[in-house]
Amino acid sequence: AIVFADGWFEWKKEGDKKQPYFIHRADGQPIFMAAIGSIPFERGDDAEGFLIVTAAADKGLVDIHDRRPLVLSPEAAREWMRQDIGGKEAGEIAADGAVQADKFIWHAVTRAVGNVKNQGPEMIEPVT
To answer: SUPFAM superfamilies under this entry (predicted)?
Structure first.
């Protein structure tokens, strides 16, 4: 499975408080997060859903968090979606198709993102 997103949030401890950050691609392109899913989704049972695959954060991203979603290039995302890939091939796609950390930027956002009731574009606006 692939989860499409504009970015993701990470919280960083700053003093005695935690500050949320919005992490996204510097070029503004969408993010394709590798996931593992259970299909068919229309069954209606508790086993439905997906897990986002994570990878070790590298370079500057480790300053925010030590893990990050495995973000794939569009080509690698297409390969990841194939129904016939096994564990070894999935590992190769993850290694060869991951978007490098230097392609991402981040900025502090409002702490209101911590409440799922808060929605809207203002949740990803930079704060100082």
So the answer is: BB1717-like
